[in-house]
Write a structure and sequence with these properties.
357 residues, mainly alpha, globular
């Protein structure tokens, strides 16, 4: 029986499925699948039906994919890592499909209703707000993450001779080598690097101001950045600790179900934190901040998910969902960020190759 690995995999999958199913109810209310709608359209029953149908269809596909992968896991528990990766990729692909269907429905509805959105030309932005105001946590916060990684690495080096030749991580068995012993430490370092870079992007992102309330919108934008900065740091710290527990369980053969408990604690903590942040932003109206230059439909490609605006000098801009930021791919420097985003999963796969093999 593989109840514990199945529960951990199913829990992480469930979090992603819930976020994908409910994201249509998050963020800017007047932007639906990248299509800008007038305020009056929000009360239209057809708009509400499109949101509801997307959530139900995505949740239904997630249930089918999750059930199939769970059955696969029960028959081949040794392929837990492969099954987990496949389930996440499949649900993401299913989400793209449902977004494509829903976006077409919104476009047809907007044309049929004759809805027009007045293009705003009065803009205000602060590219240097981060120099006068601290937009998030200090980089020193990540020294705690690096400290956990250093302790894990030091213990593995000092106890090298006591590490058994055959290692066990859940249902996975592999031999002791320098690569397999320190693989999770390398993963910790990669995790910290990714979140530090994300922290840097948050601090450099454009701070958009409401021309009618510059001071108030500035405070909300800075609060928006601080919330994301704290959430990113907390996520990184919890993941680094989890990798450390997983390494210790494999190298030192810790007894009990500590790996399972830490994995479940990580999933629950991330779900609670993300839900709390979303609710707080919705209550405070922070998720309704508008970035006028990036709210024009013609600049959003690929199902309204990629921002391409040669006229916009900013590199990092708020996305059209009211949560987080995105890269302006028309900016030459965006290619470096895009390459880094592609490199991270490739490196993760390379690091996990000894286990997959």
């Amino acid at each position: 029986m593989v109840e514990e690995p199945a529960i951990i995999i199913f829990s992480s999958y469930l979090i992603l499925a819930l976020m994908l199913s409910l994201r249509v109810y998050l963020g800017l209310r007047t932007v639906l699948f990248g299509i800008v709608l007038p305020e009056d359209a929000l009360k239209d029953p057809s708009v509400r039906a499109i949101r509801r149908n997307y959530a139900l269809l995505t949740a239904g596909l997630a249930a089918v994919i999750g059930g199939a992968c769970l059955s696969w896991l029960r028959h081949q528990p040794a392929r837990a890592l492969l099954i987990w990766t496949a389930s996440l990729l499949l649900i993401i692909a299913a989400s793209f499909f449902t977004v494509w269907l829903s976006r077409r429905s919104v476009q047809r509805l907007k044309t049929a209703r004759g809805w027009q959105v007045v293009r705003q030309t009065k803009r205000a932005a602060s590219l240097a707000a981060g120099r006068n105001h601290r937009p998030g946590l200090s980089f020193w916060w990540y020294s705690a993450n690096a400290g956990v990684m250093a302790i894990c690495t030091f213990c593995a080096i000092m106890r090298w001779d006591q590490i058994p030749h055959v290692l066990h991580l859940g249902m996975i068995t592999f031999y002791k080598t320098w690569w397999t012993v320190f693989m999770l430490n390398i993963t910790q370092a990669l995790n910290i690097t990714v979140f530090v870079c994300y922290h840097l992007l948050i601090s450099r992102a454009r701070t958009s101001l409401d021309p009618h309330d510059r001071k108030g919108s500035l405070q909300k934008q800075l609060q928006h950045k601080k919330i994301h900065s704290l959430l990113a740091w907390g996520t990184s710290f919890l993941m680094v600790v989890f990798y450390g527990v997983a390494q210790a369980s494999a190298l030192y053969r810790w007894k009990g179900n500590l790996l399972f408990l830490s994995g479940m604690s990580l999933c629950i903590a991330l779900l609670v934190a993300l839900t709390g942040v979303i609710l707080y932003m919705r209550i405070k109206g922070i998720d309704q901040l508008r970035d006028i230059p990036s709210l024009e439909e013609r600049h959003w490609k690929w199902l309204g998910s990629i921002y391409v605006n040669p006229e916009d000098p900013a590199l990092i801009v708020p996305n059209n969902r009211g949560f987080g930021w995105t890269v302006n791919l028309a900016n030459p420097r965006s290619k470096i960020i895009a390459a880094a985003i592609i490199t991270v999963p490739v490196l993760d796969t390379i690091l996990a190759f000894p286990l997959l093999r």
